[in-house]
Amino acid sequence: MNLLGEPEVTEEGEFIINIGPQHPSTHGVLHLKVWLDGETIKKVEPHIGYIHRSIEKMSESLSYRNFIYVTSRMDYISAHINNQACALTVEKGLQVEVPARARVVRVLLAELTRLASHQLWWGCTGLDLGAVTPFFYAFREREAILDIMEETCGARLTQNFMVPGGIMYDIHPNFQNRVKTVLIQVKEKLKEYDELVTDNVIFQGRVKGVGVLTAEDAISLGITGPSARASGVSCDVRKWFPYEGYENLQFDEVLDTGGDCLARYMVRMREMKQSIHIIEQLIDNIPEGDFQAKTKMVIKLPKGEFYQRVETARGELGVYIVSDGGSSPYRIKYRTPNFSNLWALPVLAKNAKIGDLISIMATLDLIIPDIDR
Amino acid sequence: MNAPTVIFYILAACILAFGLLAVTVRKIFRAAVFLLFSLIGVAGLYFLLDYEFIGAVQIIVYVGGIVVLLIFSIFLTHGSGGQMKKPRPRRVVFGALAGTLGASLTMSFINNQQFSANDKPAVAATAGEIGGQMLSVTEHGYILPFEVVSFLLLASMIGCIVIAVKIKLPAQQMLTADTDDVPTR
Amino acid sequence: MKPLLEISLSGFASQIDAWLNAALGGGTLVVATEMVVTGVVLLGFLVVLCFFLGYMERKVAGFIEIRLGPNRVGPKGSLQIVADTVKLLMKEGITPASSDKFLFHLAPVIVVTAALLAVAPIAFAKNLQIWDLNIGLLYVSAVSSLAVIGILMAGWSSYNKYSLLGAMRSGAQIVSYELSVGLSLISIVALTGSLKISDIVMAQQDGWWIFKGHIPVLISFVIFLIASTAEINRAPFDLTEAEQELTGGYHTEYSGMKFAMFLLAEYINLFVVSAIAATIFLGGWMPFHLGHWQAFNGIMDWIPSSMWFMGKTLFVVFIIMQFRWTFPRLRIDQLLNLEWKYLLPISMVNTILVALITIMGWHF
Amino acid sequence: MFLKDYVGTVYKSVRSLLTGMKVTGYYFTHPKEIQTQEYPDNRATLQMFDRFKGEVIMPHDDSNEHRCTGCQACEIACPNGTIKIITKQELQPDGKKKKAIDAFVYHLELCTLCNMCVSACPSDAIKMGQSFEHSVYDKRQLKKILNKPGSKVMEGVE
């Protein structure tokens, strides 16, 4: 019996263990109740809600200009893309034309965010599997990208660079040069990443064939992003529902068919290269002109419903606004990628080992505040 | 009284005390730990007699092998943390009797036999010498005891595997039933 | 050429012995006094060594991870580990309410004792050895198997599921990896024909085994490194602690002084393993000689034997540390696969090869 | 065949491990790659980017004058209620009464540094400062009054 009066061992002789809310590899306050038979996991039950801050409700009391900044705190690793989704939804409602310069800069920053996010994920995956060093190497490149963010947006993590109708201010004069330098650095170090982790036989053993997510499961559970694309489900919002001019860019939707942790890992590694490819196309072609469209001081959306989806680093983020014509949304719903992706965990972890649970959690790339909102 | 005698009595007291504790203590894990101490004491006696090889083997086999296996099997049983029931008085009496009988039997054998001091020159206990003796099939060779001991260990290993393997009979039966039902084409 | 620093420690010891005999009139009292003195000196040495190894580990980790490592307390951060130790000693030792208190307190003591016992037969320098018993290597592997009991005890008595899982893992791990360690030791024992540490070192007078013994000895060196890393529970085989999985494994519930004892045991074990590897494969305190090149050999002889021993040991320590900071952790079934499917068959074949080399006299 | 696979596996595994050790070994032997900034020691030379958003500040000129008219646009623009402007009626030299700020209260502990107040300000009275060392022992110390005592609004700012 534990303190809650629950049995610690079930009648079938299964051992119940609580992973979290405080645990080194849940990356936040996620609570997993795990039924174990020896080292084998029989059942996983995620308990969420430890970091619920009611961002949806909070957004409903804020104006259309202000609610954007609250969403930085959902998926704080790709805060910029969250803001972009909100700005795009408001722009959709306002029917406002965003200047070309702003659109290109937004895409550039979004892809840089994706790159930085995948780098953090790479480091954390290494850390979760017991190799501490990749974490520091990943942070070196991420730091260079965050420096770009800081120079242009003024902040590193929660950039708050979006306003409805454009971007808050123009890019910094150093922006292009810095991005080019960083791209060279990142491309060079990606090889080192492969040498240190990808090709490592221990790492391969930890991820190959572990936690296989079938395409059917991925679709029925609503998994999106790299986690679903690793199962062969084509779901890149940038390809299927292009926004911000992604339709004019050359890039591949990274797909894999394995569905296991290695496939999820490889998809993200290849996505980094695609992001670099996108940035390389745009960085010398930033059009001149305004960076912000003229909008009213107090934005009022027409009565109706607006939905916009974007591809964050972890999957599809949908912003759904119901407007009653007032100056703040009547109802807001965020369809966050991590909340959906979390529910792959009980499916994948079944009959896995405890070590596999850690690999699965690492490659699903869960961000806990995005689950709870 | 010189130092070896003092050490001998200390070790003997330890072996006896821990052995007694191992059978009387009512927490099973603690009993295993006291047994461990008792066995280490025996190894200490060997070291005192300069039989380092046997002492080391005693530690490897009994401490590193058998007690670890014991503790493992304790882990695998449920409710290993609780106190065991107090043994019935009759059992205590019979247990004590059996123990005393065994001890007195051994004592009588030792007293009735003439154990003369070995006048043969001591064998240098080098690795080569030990190896040679171990595999020697001559009159004073140790090949038979060596084989018997390895047989015993093999048997205990197989026993462990048998205990550890969980037989899920119903599931297996279902499986065979399923395969039987598959129509032949 | 005479060594730079030739303090004959055996001479020193015999002087003390003679002086004690004169002062105390010989007998038991002298033996007891000598034991106490040796114990105190050894403990002091090991504690200082552990401080150094802890500092070294942090610095190695720091440089590998493109950071500086400790650099605030003392010159270049060298006193950081002392400060940490003081902190650990001052901390409250928390005992879980439902734990088996007796075993909970006993476990760290057993782990440390086992680690300390294994130090006894190590030859630190020429003529400096505490106990040169004739089965030195067997003794070390016997005594080191005691540590697993301490770990099992700690995991079980903590009344914590993470600890219990860690203890279960450690049992399976240590018991199986002992085989590979034993077999790779046997290859050197076969070549030397002795289990005695001093004999093994003397056999390497004209070249270290790793050079003399062809590829089989190289293989057994690698196997020894891997298997002994697993036996002392260091990453990538630290499944018993597995921070990302079990939040600390068997020592999850330990704090303060008792936790420090586990840490101390870990570093002593690291030292013992490296010292054994240095002794049997890299020639112990034997200097590096190159054929009959007298000038070179003279310079090598000039470096004191204790330096040779410590240098080789720290080299092996560094390799084991680099393992830790490079590789991800294995999973428990892969760990056992590695042992039973790869290390053990390879080392068995390797042992046969070494036996062949010994019988045919193919080694140099 | 089996033996060939077996040896191949062992060879590939060992090679991959050595490749990994080569990477870490490279960094161990190249201390120039170290990225650490020794932060409190490099305070004198540490330069934040000019756009860095550390806190909201209100620049004052030499004669202790600021540009804030107390229009409360920033207070409305703020998503978190970080800014509270307390106004007073000030007697002008020509006898008219004019609204002026008494206290520009800024709660740093609530601020998300989103820059909305700065972009909302019609008279460029506030901007983002570069200071980032905000840690205090008492949360109440984070509540700041941005206009200096005795300061008044600049001439010509409406």
Provide an overview of this structure:
The complex is a heterotetramer of chains A (373), B (185), C (364) and D (158). Chain A is of the alpha+beta class and 373 residues long. Chain A is built from 15 helices and eight strands. Chain A has one domain: Orthogonal Bundle (Cytochrome-c3 Hydrogenase, chain B), CATH 1.10.645.10. Helices cover 46% and strands 13% of the residues of chain A. In chain A, strands 1-2-3 form a three-stranded antiparallel beta sheet. In chain A, strands 6-7-8 form a three-stranded antiparallel beta sheet. In chain A, β2 and β3 form a beta hairpin. In chain A, α4 (100-128) runs antiparallel to α11 (261-283) and α4 packs antiparallel against α14 (354-364). The longest helix of chain A is centred in the first third of the chain and has 29 residues, at 100-128. The mean pLDDT of chain A is 85. Chain C has two domains: 42-90, no CATH class; 94-360, no CATH class. Helices cover 69% and strands 1% of the residues of chain C. Chain C has a two-stranded antiparallel sheet. The radius of gyration of chain C is 21 Å and the shape is globular. The mean pLDDT of chain C is 82. Chain D is of the alpha+beta class and 158 residues long. Chain D has two domains: 2-33; 55-153, Alpha-Beta Plaits (2-Layer Sandwich), CATH 3.30.70.3270. Chain D has helices spanning 2-29, 73-77, 116-120, and strands at 55-57, 65-66, 83-91, 97-107, 127-129, 143-145, 152-153. The mean pLDDT of chain D is 83. Chains B and C meet through α2 and α3 of B and α2, α4, α5, α6 and α7 of C.
